[in-house]
Known about the structure:
- By secondary structure, the protein is mostly beta strands.
- It has one domain (4-249): Immunoglobulins (Immunoglobulin-like).
- The protein is built from 2 helices and 18 strands.
- It has helices at residues 49-58, 91-103, and strands at residues 4-7, 18-22, 25-29, 36-42, 69-75, 108-111, 113-116, 119-120, 139-145, 150-157, 165-173, 176-179, 189-192, 195-203, 205-207, 210-216, 228-236, 242-249.
- The strands form 5 sheets. The chain has a 6-stranded antiparallel beta sheet, with no helix packed on it. Strands 5-4-7-8 form a 4-stranded mixed beta sheet, with helices on both faces. A 4-stranded antiparallel beta sheet has the order 14-11-17-18, with no helix packed on it.
- A hairpin with a 2-residue loop joins strand 2 (18-22) and strand 3 (25-29).
Amino acid sequence: MQTCYRILFGFVMMVGLDLKTRGENLVFQSSENRVALLELFTSEGCSSCPPAETWLSGLRSSAGLWKEFVPVSFHVDYWDYLGWRDPWASRTFSDRQRDYAQSWRTDSIYTPGFVLNGQEWRSWSRDRNGPHASVVKAGVLQVNSADGTRWHVTFSPTGRNTSDYEVQAAILANEIVSDVKSGENRGRRLHHDFVVTALVRQTLASHGGKAEGELVFKNDKQQENGRRAIAFWVTRRGSLEPLQAVGGWLSN
């Protein structure tokens, strides 16, 4: 099986999930311990990616899902030239992976590539149930929405931290089945979970020891079947490293 790998130069730019319903409101809230953000960079055009995607899909039954880690899968577009255009891929996601590589001072990106809390993670296959729980006190991240489109975000960091914060959020599609007609995976039926279909970012404003803001999702690639989920993570402004994350299912 060919490993998808590319050399690039000149880069471009909930721990303890608590889901409540207040009337029609959705509320996701983490505990104070840090929840891990687990990112997979993948492509339907990469013949090495299906085992990694199978492993990621297996996390749906992990006890740590949403409590100890939040998984997101970014489909990149730099393998589309091999003959199959990944319908879930985006150049924005490829650029995100390039930004990580630049922060690690490397000139290469590859798929499948896992990133755990902002750092390259190559030992993923040895942890069948996903990343382990963290004892790091990060602070409480809470998000709520009345309609699933406009979300209010509140981050209460542990200690007296005066940093400027940003929040990013992603809509995640699950139970996707794709029949690949060409390229390295020609003739294969691929299965995907936690696929990012919309990604937004917003700067948070500081108010009395808390950071607050609102995010709005306009449109994302809708799926006809399967459960949808949502993920949020907070970083210091201008940084890629997530400080706290939260997420959960949106539908049955």
